[in-house]
C-alpha cells in the first residue's frame, strides 16, 4: 500500500512512522508513506498556500491552486484509489472504514489547516472526507497519522501474529475482552481459572461473554446499531 500525505507542516509527520509496527511495515515493503510538502507546489515567490476568505471572516483558507497542482502531480502515471480530506465534518472514522481502506492500494491524504480548504477542493478533487472525532485539531496531520496507523496494522504480514487484528475491539462490533499474562496470581489478584484450563472452546465462550458484557456496559450503542 502507498499513502501520500499532503501537508503544510511535514515536520509533524516524521516521528509517527519511524517506530514500532509502522516502521516494520515500511521496512518490509508492505507500506510506503510519503510526506508531501504542499508549499513545493505553490506558484507564489514565498511559497504561499493560503489566503484571506472572500466575503471576510476570521482565519485563512488553503488555496485551490497548489492543492490541485500537488494532487495532479501525485496522480501522474498511477491510479489513486481515494483522495481523502481529513476534516472535522467528514464521516466518522471507525474500524469498518479502516478495514475497507486497508484493501486499497493507493491513497492520498490531504491535511486541512488554518480555516480549512477552498470549497472547490472538496467539490472537485476529494473523493472522501473523514473525521477521527467530534473535536477540532490545529491541523489534519495528527488525524492522518491515526488513519495510517489504523490501516497499516491491518496489512497482511505487518503484525507478527496476523490473527491478532481480528480480535481487536470493534472488529465484530464488540469491545475486546479482558486479557491477562504471567504471573497467574499477583498480590491476591487471580487470573480467571478458565484461561488456565487449556480448554479452547470454553476459553472462546468466556471471551465472547466478556466482550458482550463489556460492550453492554461501556458502549451499548454498538449493540443497538446491529
CA gyration radius, whole angstroms: 22 Å
Helix content: 25-40%
Number of strands: 9
Q: Flag low-confidence runs.
A: none
Number of domains: 2
Mean pLDDT rating: 93
What percentage of amino acids are in beta strands? Answer: 15-25%
Provide the succession of SSEs. EHEEEHEHEHEHEEHH
CATH class descriptor name of the largest domain: Alpha Beta
CATH architecture call of the largest domain: 3-Layer(aba) Sandwich
Biggest sheet strand order reads: 2-1-6-5-7
How far apart, in Å, are the first and last alpha carbons? 31 Å
CATH superfamily of the largest domain: SPOUT methyltransferase, trefoil knot domain
Summing up helix and strand content along with how strands pair, one would put the structural category as alpha/beta
CATH topology of the largest domain: Alpha/beta knot
The major pleated sheet works out as: 5 strands, parallel
SS field, number of helical segments: 7
User: Which oligomeric state applies?
Assistant: single chain
Amino acid at each position: 500500500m502507498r499513502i501520500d500525505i499532503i501537508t503544510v507542516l511535514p515536520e509533524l509527520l516524521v516521528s509517527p512512522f519511524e517506530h514500532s509496527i509502522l516502521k516494520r511495515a515500511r521496512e518490509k515493503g508492505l507500506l510506503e508513506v510519503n510526506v508531501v510538502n504542499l508549499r513545493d507546489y505553490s506558484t507564489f515567490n514565498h511559497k504561499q498556500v493560503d489566503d484571506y476568505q472572500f466575503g471576510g471572516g476570521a482565519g485563512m483558507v488553503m488555496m485551490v491552486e497548489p492543492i490541485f497542482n500537488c494532487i495532479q502531480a501525485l496522480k501522474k502515471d498511477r491510479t489513486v484509489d481515494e483522495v481523502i480530506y481529513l476534516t472535522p465534518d467528514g464521516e466518522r472514522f471507525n474500524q469498518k472504514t479502516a478495514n475497507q481502506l486497508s484493501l486499497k492500494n493507493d491513497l492520498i491524504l490531504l491535511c486541512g489547516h488554518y480555516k480549512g480548504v477552498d470549497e472547490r477542493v472538496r467539490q472537485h478533487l476529494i473523493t472522501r472526507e473523514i473525521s477521527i472525532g467530534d473535536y477540532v485539531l490545529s491541523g489534519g496531520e495528527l488525524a492522518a497519522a491515526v488513519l495510517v496507523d489504523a490501516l497499516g496494522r491491518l496489512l497482511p504480514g505487518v503484525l507478527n501474529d496476523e490473527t491478532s487484528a481480528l480480535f481487536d475491539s470493534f472488529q465484530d462490533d464488540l469491545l475486546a475482552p479482558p486479557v491477562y499474562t504471567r504471573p497467574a496470581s499477583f498480590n491476591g489478584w487471580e487470573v480467571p481459572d478458565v484461561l488456565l484450563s487449556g480448554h479452547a472452546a470454553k476459553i472462546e465462550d468466556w471471551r465472547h461473554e466478556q466482550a458482550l458484557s463489556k460492550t453492554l456496559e461501556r458502549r451499548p450503542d454498538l449493540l443497538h446499531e446491529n
